[in-house]
Amino acid sequence: MDWGVNWNAGTSAMISPKVTLEFDVAAIRES
């Protein structure tokens, strides 16, 4: 079970920056 938790944490850590970047780009286009 620990492996699943670690994998999810690692995936979130890699995906979060991409999602944040997309939100930043969307905000720039809105303004």
What layout of secondary structure does this protein have?
Elements: H1 2-30
What does this structure look like?
The structure is a single chain. With 31 residues, the chain is mainly alpha-helical. It is built from 1 helix and no strands. It has one domain. Helix content is 94%, strand content 0%.
Features:
31 residues; mainly alpha; 0% strand; rod-shaped
Class computed from helices, strands and strand pairing: mainly alpha
Low-confidence sequence ranges: none
Q: What is the count of structural domains?
A: 1
Sequence of secondary-structure elements:
H
Largest sheet: none
Q: What share of the residues does DSSP label as strand, in percent?
A: under 5%
> Counting H and I runs of at least 4 residues, what is the number of helices?
1
Multimerization state: single chain
Q: Radius of gyration in whole Å, from Cα?
A: 14 Å
Helix share bin = over 70%
Q: Based on CA inertia axes, which overall geometry fits?
A: rod-shaped
Could you tell me the number of beta strands? 0
Mean pLDDT: 78
Distance between the termini: 44 Å
